[in-house]
Amino acid sequence: MMDAKLLEYDFDEEEVGFGEPATSAAVHQDSLSGLEKFSLALVGLGLLSVLVQVFGSSLAGTWVGFLTAFGLPSAGAMLYYWADFKDTTPGIKHDGVFFRGLLARGGAGWIAGILMTGLYVLLYWYPQMLGHPSDGGEPTGLVRVVDPLARVMTGYPASQWFLYGVLYTLSIVVFGTRMLMKYRHNRYHQIRTFSVAFFQFVFAWLLP
Question: 20 to 30 A Cα–Cα from 86, which one of 75, 78, 139, 195?
Answer without folding.
Answer: 195
